[in-house]
Amino acid sequence: LVKEAELTCRIEHRLTQDEREVDRVLHQHPDAGQFRTRNKAVRLTVGMRAVAVPDVVGAPQGEARAALADHDLKMQVCGRRITGRFDVGTVIQQKPAAGKLARVGSCVDVTIEAESVVVPSLRDLTLEEARRQLDGRLIAKPRREVLRDDVRVPRVEGQDPPPHRRVAPGTVVHLDLAVPGVRVPQCVGRPEADARKQLRGLGLQCTSAGQDSSDVHAQGTVMRQHPDANALVAPGSAVRITVSSGPPPRVVPSVIRNDLPDARRRLKDAGFESVMVHAPEGQHIPPLQEFRYYVINQDPAGGQTVHPRTVITLSVAKPVE
């Protein structure tokens, strides 16, 4: 009829369970009697035989396939997923959903519960114990090591996936291992030999960073270390120490023409504590008479750079009265 009216036809189907509507025109647009330009399309809605999709969620795969076949439907497995709520091989999801209409002979997509393994807790086990616990169903793989001073052998401290989670067989379980560590002792202030002996006793290496001058630390004692004291390091790690070479060299002030008490003060302020005085003809100079004597020569001379423990020799004379 549409062809005779010089119009084209566009057919759409509507699912129906009413046999009287199957292969019948249920609706048309435009409606009968309306004018339509030649060669324009008329949309026809035709009934298509359908069935209500049965509920197969929770049914084993074989039973689900048979139940769908009883309704002239096919089953297509579109995926497998782990939920932990169903037995392995059970339908956990379907599309179309139960009660929806589907064309006779069409496919219902289903998702099946996949095989799974419950991840056990591996905390505080050694790596070998953890592998035995997994029993080949899962794979143990160390991910990182965390230093601890309260363990004697490496033990599992963390894991991913976490305990009690369901995963596929063969899944890798990443392990964080607590491994034995050593606390670095306090070496600063100790003689170099003592520090080296203590580090060796703890299973640590000692390397030298050379010497440096220090006003604080005595010559031959450790003045710096790396890592710092109390740091947690792996056994066999190296601790680098810097040894004091004593106070740094200082410039000797010139004290010629200064009276003896003033000369002593200036030398002391400059860091020189050791002073030897040569009086004329070996005279003894009473402390209360030192102000009467003046420096006429000094050794080392003013301006020289020497070690602060150097003895400064002052030659003094008493002015002619």
Write up this protein.
With 321 residues, this protein is mainly beta. Helix content is 12%, strand content 38%. The chain has 4 helices and 22 strands. It has helices at 61-69, 127-134, 192-201, 260-269; strands at residues 8-16, 25-29, 41-52, 74-81, 91-95, 101-103, 107-113, 117-118, 139-148, 155-160, 166-167, 172-180, 182-183, 205-212, 222-226, 232-233, 238-244, 250-251, 275-278, 294-299, 305-306, 312-317. The longest helix has 10 residues, at 192-201. It is elongated. The mean pLDDT is 91.
Q: What are the defining features of this structure?
A:
321 residues, mainly beta, four-stranded mixed β-sheet, three-stranded mixed β-sheet, 4 helices, 22 strands, 38% strand, elongated
